[in-house]
Amino acid sequence: MRNLVPLTKILLTLGTAVWAIIFREPFSLALLCVLELIILLVSNELFKNVKALMMLCVFAFFLGLIEYIGGGTEKECAVAALRMLGMTIIFIYLLATVRLQDLTAAMVQQLKVPYEYAFMFTAGLRFVPDFMEENKAVAEAQSCRGLAIEGNFIKQVKRYMSVVRPLMLRSLGRSETMALSLELRGFGSSTRTFMESVSPKGIDYIFMLLIILFTVAVIYARVLYGA
Question: What is the pTM of this model?
Fold first, then answer.
């Protein structure tokens, strides 16, 4: 599973999202979540991303709780929570096993997405962990200077501005550096090459065929039998 090309993994991610939307029984959605966990386990990414999985479970719990407060039944709450998990767990597999440059290459070469848009998408993904690390570093630096983000919600928001301002300045500086680097490397040139090939191989075509067939079967069963 780990050695599949990015296009196969993208198709699996999209197919899983479609299955999660079509399934409407808690049991089938739970099986889908178990399948995704097995995929993570086979790819040696399950135990590396336990924290992310726990955060997703907490978010799913609150999503189900909101559904229950809004008047939903227990089944509807379970379906909402499991559907969210079914649509998001697979993204951990995608982002953990695919290098961002390979993801960009697959979007440009196979999916025919314009390079500028593909680069913007992957660049956004690349800077999320960096932004989180900078947020942590700035918050720790301000704590060392005696900043305590305590009190009621309004006071917490006002005090957290001491973290937001330097964080935004560092982000702007990073953006300017990145823009200059892209300009020096000829970003926007009409000719574009990639270092490694991300073309599908035999096993990839088998997986893609299975994903498409299963997706068609699920849609057909839902339309014909309402299952």
Answer: 0.74
